[in-house]
Amino acid sequence: MKLTNIALGLFTAAAIFMVGCSATQTVSEESLGLRKTSLYTESDAMPVKTEYSKKAAGESKLIARAFENAPPMIPHDIEGMLPITINNNSCTGCHVPGVAESMNATPIPQSHFTNFRPDTALASNGMITKEGQEVENTSDFKTVGKKTAMVSGTRFNCSQCHAPQSMSKTPVNEFQADFRADGHSKKSNLIDNINEGVK
Ligand code: HEC
Ligand code: HEC
Description:
The termini are far apart. This protein is an alpha+beta fold and 199 residues long. The longest helix has 22 residues. It contains 3 helices and 5 strands. Helix content is 16%, strand content 7%. The chain has a 3-stranded antiparallel β-sheet, with no helix packed on it. A two-stranded antiparallel sheet has the order 1-5. A hairpin with a 2-residue loop joins β3 and β4. The chain is extended, with a radius of gyration of 29 Å. It binds heme C (2 copies). The site of one heme C has 22 residues, from α2. The site of one heme C (HEC) has 22 residues, from α2.
């Protein structure tokens, strides 16, 4: 009895499989890739051309922030401004607060004039001290942020975080940022909210 059941089951499965097979559509290999050209040759597979803005600083249009407190993309030409070296950082020349306003450039924000790394030392008793306070565990340290007179060393290399935006035709980014307030797509607020979520 059992055996007949199994045999019947197998027969039905085979029948369904065969019907399924006969209905299968063929897919051409050319249509398999994301690109719409042949997968067998590279001749037509040209990447999108990178086209950074050629507009000089002062003539470009700001690019909306990708999400709240995202590092803004550089909207202007940066030809001749890189690499940033210890003696030559042209970015600060225009973006440092005090100068930036008169140039219509966004001033470097307060977060970039803040050292978020507490002075840390290992005391002779094996304890760690941060800002002169003994702590058992680095994650116990509650104070973050100490004002710096100059742009904090951690922010000196602007192009580590801010990049120019290529304006070529690329796939559309469908990510929709949720800004918590109007204007956050144009202005950062990190320094006011840096302790958010820190107990
Ligand atoms: C000659 C002055 C000048 C120099 C040098 C300069 N910038 Fe700018 N920057 C501007 C101005 C002015 C704007 C505003 C847009 C415009 O008018 O082109 C701007 C806009 C920006 C923005 C967008 C800010 C926002 O609110 O969206 C970023 C980011 C930026 N610059 C980064 C840099 C970096 C990084 C460097 C160095 C590689 C640099 N800039 C060098 C003048 C300058
Ligand atoms: C470690 C990454 C990092 C470095 C290095 C860095 N930035 Fe930023 N920058 C950010 C982020 C993240 C934000 C947005 C949040 C904030 O304000 O800190 C930002 C914001 C900005 C803004 C927008 C300020 C506003 O009020 O909306 C300007 C202008 C800017 N940076 C310029 C610079 C310049 C010029 C340098 C180099 C001297 C630099 N940044 C170095 C990450 C960086």
